Q: What sequence folds into this?
């Protein structure tokens, strides 16, 4: 491999390993339905969760902790320090059975101390002598009543614990300084927060799944996918047409359609390929079957013929020939007869249409197609073709199943590889490119077929010809074609009317 070629491959590999911002934008545009669906599912799940949750109310009471006694400044300071050290311990007592059981008995609640403790929280801020007791319950009035009762129970328990004797006075005093009030609105579920989190989770899952699906998608979708495989140019793009099987020769049947214009653009690009090469013979092939190589070769040949070039379309697919069916010519004799010396060129070449287009069918299917296409007779025949025609197009078999196209590509100007968007896998295209490079064949360029007409990978104006939405669209082209047919039928009827009956 040449140094320049090696550097191009290295650059291409580095670019292929980097995901650019435009790739993410393309993924978002392509998978927006999936992303929107998962976002809505996340939002709906959050809304459903919020609706099914029982509303809980929160109420709080505050208890002030102080020391009794102390007349001097030192004694007061000492008492304050003592209080701050003990307040954390008192806060922990609020959830113990010694505090909660009297509350349960006084209020007549059918709950255990352990069950009630799960709904009670006591906190003491740092460097403060306040204890805040918070109760959560689905009954707002009961939550406020519990918070107040627990605060009073804690006051009594601490006083009894801190007494050194029955007659002594507790050195610590707890005072209920803030009674719990009945809450007016629930604190949970937090509906706005749940909806926001549900939306974000759904959006993240949607984007993640979209990126995952795009990463796992190994099919050729657009030009960039082809550029990551080879640095050879993309010389044409043909939009997908659901009626392609009904009218394969679109350039002839509907010359004003966007697909026909695409083939004329391909014709123009082909004229600039390998200008210095003495031969103007090209092999039209693909990685696998059903990528549109035969229809591409046929329509390109018609477009070249319409431009005034003397063109020869050769069916070099000696295994499954189709050119004779598409072009409507006799396929009993053809290329195989020339290669074995059974016929002369003028005996098997058939003129097609009103231009300078000639068709050479495949002829009878031989047992050794690869040997015939790689023989010296094929080289001599190609020289004869080059002397008689301006452009020679060979419709060859796919590259991966057989070696026919690779062998034939060595003796022509280059190979035009047809790639079907959404059908061809990247590994298949890599294999096809490798098959041509292994035999030293030149890849003149790629032609993308079956390109979508909508979405981020859509075929459009300004790339390969007139896109949909500019000039004639499919419907406009069909209407114009019907109008032309009606006009010709009217002229014929008028002419028949003037002709006297025999």
A:
């Amino acid at each position: 491999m040449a140094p320049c070629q090696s550097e191009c491959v290295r650059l291409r590999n580095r670019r292929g390993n980097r995901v650019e911002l435009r790739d993410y934008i393309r993924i978002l545009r392509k998978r927006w339905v999936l992303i929107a669906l998962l976002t809505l599912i996340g939002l709906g799940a959050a809304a459903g969760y919020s609706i099914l949750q029982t509303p809980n109310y929160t109420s709080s009471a505050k208890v002030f902790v102080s020391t009794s006694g102390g007349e001097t400044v030192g004694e007061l300071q000492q008492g304050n320090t003592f209080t701050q050290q003990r307040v954390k311990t008192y806060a922990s007592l609020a959830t113990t059975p010694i505090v909660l059981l009297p509350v349960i008995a006084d209020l007549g609640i059918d709950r255990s101390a352990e069950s009630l403790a799960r709904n009670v929280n006591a906190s003491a801020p740092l460097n403060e002598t306040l204890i805040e007791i918070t109760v959560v319950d689905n009954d707002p009035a009961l939550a406020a009543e519990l918070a107040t009762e627990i605060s009073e129970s804690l006051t009594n328990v601490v006083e009894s614990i801190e007494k050194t004797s029955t007659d002594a006075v507790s050195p610590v005093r707890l005072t209920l300084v803030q009674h719990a009030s009945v809450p007016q609105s629930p604190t949970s579920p937090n509906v706005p927060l749940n909806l926001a989190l549900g939306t974000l989770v759904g959006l993240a899952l949607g984007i993640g799944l979209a990126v995952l699906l795009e990463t796992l998608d190994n099919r050729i979708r657009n030009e960039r996918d082809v550029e990551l495989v080879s640095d050879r140019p993309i010389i044409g793009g043909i939009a997908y047409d659901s009626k392609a099987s009904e009218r394969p020769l679109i350039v002839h049947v509907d010359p004003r359609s966007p697909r026909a214009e695409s083939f004329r653009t391909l014709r123009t690009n082909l004229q600039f390929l390998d200008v210095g090469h003495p031969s103007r013979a090209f092999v039209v092939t693909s990685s696998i079957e059903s990528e549109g190589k035969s229809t591409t070769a046929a329509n390109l040949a018609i477009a070249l013929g319409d431009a005034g070039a003397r063109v020869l379309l050769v069916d070099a697919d000696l295994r499954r020939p189709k050119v004779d069916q598409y072009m409507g010519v006799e396929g009993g004799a053809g290329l195989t007869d020339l290669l074995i010396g059974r016929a002369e060129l003028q005996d098997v070449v058939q003129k097609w249409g009103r231009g300078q287009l000639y068709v050479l069918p495949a002829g009878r299917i031989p047992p050794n197609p690869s040997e015939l296409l790689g023989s010296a007779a094929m080289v001599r025949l190609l020289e004869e073709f080059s002397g008689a025609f301006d452009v020679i197009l060979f419709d060859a078999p796919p590259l991966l199943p057989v070696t026919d196209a690779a062998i034939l590509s060595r003796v022509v100007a280059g190979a035009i590889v047809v790639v079907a968007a959404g059908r061809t896998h990247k590994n298949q295209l890599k294999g096809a490119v490798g098959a041509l490079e292994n035999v030293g064949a030149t890849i003149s360029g790629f032609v993308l077929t079956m390109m979508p007409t909508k979405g981020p990978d859509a075929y459009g104006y300004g790339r390969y010809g007139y896109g949909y939405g500019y000039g004639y669209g499919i419907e406009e082209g069909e209407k114009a074609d019907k109008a032309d047919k009606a006009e010709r039928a009217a002229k014929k009827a008028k002419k028949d009317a003037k002709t006297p009956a025999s």
Remarks:
- The two ends are 75 Å apart (CA to CA).
- Confidence is low (pLDDT under 50) at residues 1-17, 461-478.
- The longest helix spans residues 191-216.
